[in-house]
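Dear colleagues,

For the upcoming journal club I promised to circulate an example of a predicted protein-ligand complex. I picked one with zinc ion because it came up in last month's discussion. The inputs are reproduced below in full, followed by the predicted structure.
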Amino acid sequence: MDTLWTDFINSDWHDFRESGKHEDRLVLSSWQKQFLHDWQLKSSVPATNIELKALQTLRKLLHNYTLAIVKESSADLIDWNELNRIMAQSPVIRQWNKDDQENRHVTYIPLVQDWNSVMAEVVSDFVHTVLDQDIQRIRICDNPDCRWVFYDDTRSRTKRYCEDKTCGNLMKVRRFRAKKGSSRSQ
Ligand SMILES: [Zn+2]
C-alpha cells in the first residue's frame, strides 16, 4: 500500500529492471502536480530551488529513518524534535466539514498552503504510521534495484515486493537463472 509519506520518498525513483538507473522525480513539475492532486494538497508548482532543497532534505531524513526501522525493527533513530520542528512550520485552522457520506468531523486546514504545509502533512503521516500502526509492516522492496518503500497491509504480512507482477516475477527469474547457472558449473 502506498501512503502519503511513502509516495513522497518514492519520488527518488529507481528502475527495478536495471541496477543504478534512477531519476529524481521530485524536481519535475509534472510529478509535483500529480502528487498534490493525489493527496489533495495545495501549493505552487513548480517548487522554488530553496523549497526543493528542503523537500530533498526531508526525503533523505525520512528515508534514513525507514532504513533504520526496516533493519533494526525499531524507531530509536528518529529525531522527534526535528519532526516537530518541521510540523511547526505549518500552523492550522480547525474547522468542521462534511465528508462524502455527509458526516461532520473536524479537519485541520493549514493557515498557509505551501510546500511547508505539504512537508508538515508528509511528516504527520509518517509519525502516524510509526506511532499508531505497525512499524514491522514498513518495507523496502526485496529487489535491490527497486528500493520502493511501502506499507505491507496484507493479512499474511509477508509482502516482499512492491509488485508481484514486476519485481516479484523478475526476482523469481533471477533466482531460477542463478540456480541453473550453479547446477551447470558443478
Ligand atoms: Zn519493487
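Two points we might discuss: The longest helix spans residues 49-72. Strands lie at 12-14, 22-24, 92-98, 104-110, 138-140, 149-151.

See you all on Thursday,
B. R.
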